[in-house]
């Protein structure tokens, strides 16, 4: 089946990309001037200790060999030790990653829902005030970077209008036992609705800040794709055969129009993840991005490499998923014989 | 995009440089651009930013505030007639600093794009010309690696491991940015590659150099220009994100992201310290976006 | 016996305008067309003369929002389509009239299977509701596909349009049209986008379908030969007006309108005579159409009244109407 080979090719490509990324990040990390062992232990550590660490880290060996040891460690889950937290990086990641996942998934859901809603509205009421309003908002929405939106929210909701919490994931005094690490999910599983509501409230501001720009961008794409499809012959033809209007709208118009939108959702996730780095800092959200930024500022190399690999892998998985969804929606993609030439 | 008037298999017409076509049609192109008022707005904003950045030392009210300057008598002044955007915690005029920050931002965008676009385009053309050969595969897989991560993350990493200076921030962004152009140009070049007029040129013995630069490239120029115009805004955004976390221009030289971050510490009392640099960032992106959209409408013949 | 009751469709003085940037495209300028029960009507005209627009107006499937009908009526079984309620229109489309589009590739939705599309046509047709589910939707779909001689109908249901050839897609469209009993088919240049042998097959299929079910059909074509063979009456259309109508033999033997004469003279004859003459000029601009007869700019003959008012259809002999001042001596 054509689809199977299509999927296989994507998978192989992705694995290749991850490995390539790991090489790139490894080279970058080793490019840093200075002695990693000395940096890890500080200027006051005795020379023998540093020497021993150098040997442990294989610093004397040629680069490809170092890479090999590092990759071997990574594949078995050992990312090394963080200079800052002094724990195994894997532990840190296990603690912080779910927070970022929860945030990015929530932001992603917001983008999907609102961009389709706004885009469809704009298309239905094309050239009326609704359409023009959405279009104007889009120009501004796209131009506001996530961290600017975050700062503005901080100002607005932190001080002037404190109806939504601005710091962290939970209010003090509320406890949820971690099962998945996704607090909203965990609290639901345990039936703790107070905690659920609290966690949700904390999610809102950072997610909206993250999703703002892309929501409006996707809304524009949805609108234009809907407008383009509205005039297509197959709609008149289907209408002419007597298919009722609501079926035409919600089935025969919607599905082809959503394809361009869904195709760019992979990029959306990229932008969410990238912007999370700053937004987490602002909202004090204990996620992997904030962890990563701190590591970058303190030159905590093992952490930096680990974060890049993890983020890259997640990003790739999301992309493949999006590609699968698009191929599922659009038979033209999965059934066409050759791409390009 | 190719002129729809241009016949497919005529080599002679493709030898006409695309630049002259653009200038010949300047009147018509301007009309297309100006039909959308928003594009004009964008153009005005961009022109305003560029001019004010170039003439910053002469037109800002307090040019010396953009350097090592401290005035503890005037700290934390709200916006007024003397200080349009107020003063910050060190008594410096925020408006002047914003204009100077534009300088750094524009220089960064200019340098980054000047360094990243030509190699990116070249690689894309090469991969497109040698499509389906090992050259294509190697180039595009490497490109995929660099596209595999959102640009901000890699830029942060690179800027972090190097010392925090403007130069290094530019290097960091450049190292990633070329790959977007490679992909863009590859998409166009690989499909144009097998059009008749290229094959004809090949058969009549035109050198590879000629084919790539005189046949394929002219057909890819419009989207490249559009992307460059839009990218100025995005590069400035990434630059602001970098300076927000302290990478990039170091104080006392002003940078937009850095100003937003500093201002964050004094919220909500000195709210103008954050709000105005934030608005400046939004304005820059907005301006380049609007102008870029207008350019796209003008250069790429859409469906009418 | 041709009594009033036999008249199925009666378009009276239809004007349709499209709103565009510079004003209005006044495409249809007084179209008159009549179809009786069991009659096969041919509508002939060059590309862009308004044939498809007229047909789409009957079913009210013109592009949303952009058009305007300043005057005219379309009577179907005595009721004015232009004044019909939504529900009545629904019934009209699903039970009375079916239109088979010109290009089957654009007429089918690319992201849904054939089975889904034809299934929905059946599901929402009023006739199906009345049928009390004596057969399933799938059963009816397969039956329709078999009637258009599509091989392996079961497999066809799960195919997507892009997997089918042009001829097969056209058959699917016909199958959708015949899936419920209908009284009038509108076939818009069937098979034009396909090669000639396939086109021939499609025409034969249409003929068979029409004969078997005794339905009426409006056959749009720009081939006079096809019109002559397959219709009981021909309407000649030019620039949004009907210029002449007659029985096929009469039209070919005794064309009256200058345009019809020109059309017939344009057909190259194998028996000799060299390359045909053709009609110089082109269709008028719909944005600023001529105020009088729309053919006047291309007409060889002329009289002052031609540019003043558009001519009305006028019966010069039994069952033969022409819209031309020059023939009304």
Shape of chain A: globular
Distance between the termini of chain A: 21 Å
Q: pLDDT below 50 for ≥5 consecutive residues: which ranges of chain B?
A: 1-18
How big a fraction of the residues of chain A is strand? Answer: under 5%
Give the terminus-to-terminus CA distance of chain B: 15 Å
| Number of separate strands of chain B | 0
Query: Could you state the oligomeric state of the chains shown?
Result: heterotrimer
Helix tally of chain B? 14
Helix content of chain A: over 70%
- Name the CATH class of the largest domain in chain A: Mainly Alpha
Number of helices of chain A: 15
Q: Which CATH architecture of chain B would you pick?
A: Orthogonal Bundle
Report the portion of residues of chain B in β strands: under 5%
The CATH architecture term of the largest domain in chain A is: Orthogonal Bundle
Tell me the domain tally of chain A: 2
CATH superfamily of the largest domain in chain A: MetI-like
Average pLDDT of chain A: 79
Give the proportion of residues in helices of chain B.
Answer: 55-70%
**CATH class category name of chain B:** Mainly Alpha
CATH topology of the largest domain in chain A: MetI-like fold
């Amino acid at each position: 089946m054509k689809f199977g080979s299509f999927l296989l090719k994507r998978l192989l490509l992705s694995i290749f990309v991850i490995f390539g990324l790991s090489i790139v990040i490894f080279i970058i990390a080793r490019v840093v001037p200075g002695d990693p062992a000395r940096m890890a232990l500080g200027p006051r550590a005795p020379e023998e200790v540093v020497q021993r660490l150098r040997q442990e880290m294989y610093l004397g060996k040629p680069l490809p060999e170092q890479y090999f040891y590092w990759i071997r460690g990574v594949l078995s889950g050992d990312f090394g030790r963080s200079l800052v937290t002094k724990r195994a990086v894997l532990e840190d990641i296990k603690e912080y990653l779910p927070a970022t996942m929860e945030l990015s998934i929530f932001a992603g859901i917001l983008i999907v829902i609102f961009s389709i809603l706004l885009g469809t509205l704009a298309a239905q009421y094309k050239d009326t005030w609704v359409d023009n309003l959405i279009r104007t908002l889009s120009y501004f929405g796209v131009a506001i970077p996530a961290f600017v939106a975050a700062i503005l929210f901080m100002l607005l909701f932190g001080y002037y209008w404190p109806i939504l919490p601005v710091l962290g994931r939970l209010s003090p005094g509320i406890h949820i036992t971690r099962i998945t690490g996704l607090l909203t999910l965990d609290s639901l599983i345990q039936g703790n609705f107070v905690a659920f509501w609290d966690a949700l409230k904390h999610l809102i501001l950072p997610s909206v800040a993250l999703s703002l720009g892309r929501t409006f961008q996707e809304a524009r794409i949805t609108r234009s794709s809907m407008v383009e499809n509205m005039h297509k012959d197959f709609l008149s033809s289907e209408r002419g055969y007597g298919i009722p209007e609501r079926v035409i709208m919600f089935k025969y118009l919607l599905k082809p129009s959503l394809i361009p939108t869904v195709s760019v959702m992979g990029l959306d996730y990229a932008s969410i993840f990238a912007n999370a780095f700053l937004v987490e800092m602002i909202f004090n959200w204990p996620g992997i991005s904030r962890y990563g930024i701190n590591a970058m500022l303190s030159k905590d190399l093992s952490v930096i490499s680990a974060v890049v690999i993890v983020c890259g892998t997640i990003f790739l998985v999301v992309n493949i998923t999006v590609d699968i969804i698009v191929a599922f929606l659009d038979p033209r993609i999965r059934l066409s014989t050759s791409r390009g030439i | 995009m190719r002129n729809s008037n241009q016949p497919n298999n005529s080599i002679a017409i493709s030898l006409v440089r695309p630049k002259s076509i653009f200038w010949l049609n300047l009147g018509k192109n301007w009309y297309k651009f100006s039909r959308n008022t928003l594009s004009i707005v964008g153009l005005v904003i961009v022109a305003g930013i560029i001019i004010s950045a170039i003439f910053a030392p002469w037109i800002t009210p307090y040019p010396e505030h953009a350097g090592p300057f401290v005035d503890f008598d005037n700290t934390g002044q709200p916006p007024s007639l003397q200080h349009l955007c107020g003063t910050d915690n060190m008594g410096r005029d925020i408006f002047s600093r914003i204009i100077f920050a534009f300088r750094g931002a524009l220089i960064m965008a200019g340098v980054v794009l000047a360094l990243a676009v030509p190699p990116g385009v070249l690689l894309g053309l090469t991969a497109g010309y040698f499509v389906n050969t090992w050259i294509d595969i190697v180039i595009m897989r490497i490109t995929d690696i660099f596209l595999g991560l959102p640009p901000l993350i890699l830029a942060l990493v690179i800027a972090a491991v190097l010392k925090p200076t403007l130069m290094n921030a530019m290097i960091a962004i450049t190292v990633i940015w070329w790959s977007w152009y490679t992909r863009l140009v590859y998409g166009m070049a690989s499909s144009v590659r097998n059009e008749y007029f290229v094959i004809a040129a090949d058969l009549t013995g035109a050198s590879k150099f000629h084919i790539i630069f005189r046949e394929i490239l002219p057909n890819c120029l419009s989207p490249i220009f559009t992307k460059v115009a839009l990218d100025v805004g995005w590069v400035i955004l990434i630059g602001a994100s970098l300076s927000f976390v302290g990478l990039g221009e170091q104080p006392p030289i002003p940078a937009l992201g850095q100003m937003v971050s500093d201002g964050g510490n004094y919220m909500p009392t000195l709210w103008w310290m954050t709000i105005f640099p934030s608005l400046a960032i939004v304005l820059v992106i907005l301006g380049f976006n609007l102008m870029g959209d207008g350019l796209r409408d003008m250069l790429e013949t859409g469906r009418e | 016996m041709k009594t009033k009751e036999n008249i199925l469709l009666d378009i009276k003085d239809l004007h349709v305008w499209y709103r565009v940037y510079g004003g209005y495209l006044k495409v249809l300028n007084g179209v008159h067309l009549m179809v009786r029960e069991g009659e096969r009507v041919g509508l002939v005209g060059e590309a862009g003369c308004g044939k498809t627009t007229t047909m789409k107006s009957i079913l009210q499937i013109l592009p949303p929002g952009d058009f305007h009908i300043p005057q005219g009526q379309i009577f179907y079984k005595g009721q004015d389509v232009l004044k019909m309620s939504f529900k009545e229109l629904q019934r009209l489309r699903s039970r009375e009239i079916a239109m088979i589009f010109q290009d089957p590739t654009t007429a089918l939705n690319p992201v849904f299977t054939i089975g889904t599309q034809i299934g929905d046509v059946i599901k929402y047709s009023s006739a199906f509701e009345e049928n009390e589910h004596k057969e399933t939707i799938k059963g009816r779909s397969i039956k329709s596909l078999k009637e258009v001689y599509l091989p392996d109908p079961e497999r066809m249901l799960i195919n997507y349009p892009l997997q089918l050839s042009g001829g097969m897609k056209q058959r699917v469209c016909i199958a959708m049209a015949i899936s419920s009993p209908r009284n009038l088919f509108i076939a818009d240049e069937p098979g034009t986008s396909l090669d000639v042998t396939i086109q021939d097959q499609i025409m034969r299929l249409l003929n068979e379908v029409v004969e078997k079910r005794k339905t009426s059909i409006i056959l749009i074509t720009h081939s006079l030969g096809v019109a002559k063979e397959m219709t009981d009456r021909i309407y000649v259309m030019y620039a949004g007006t009907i210029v002449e109508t007659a029985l096929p033999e009469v039209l070919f033997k005794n064309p009256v309108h200058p345009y019809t004469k020109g059309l017939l003279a344009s057909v190259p004859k194998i028996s000799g005579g060299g390359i045909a003459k053709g009609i110089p000029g082109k269709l008028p601009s719909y944005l600023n159409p001529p105020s009088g007869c729309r053919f006047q700019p291309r007409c060889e003959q002329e009289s002052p009244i031609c540019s003043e008012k558009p001519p009305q259809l006028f019966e010069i002999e039994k069952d033969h109407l022409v819209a031309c001042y020059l023939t009304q001596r």
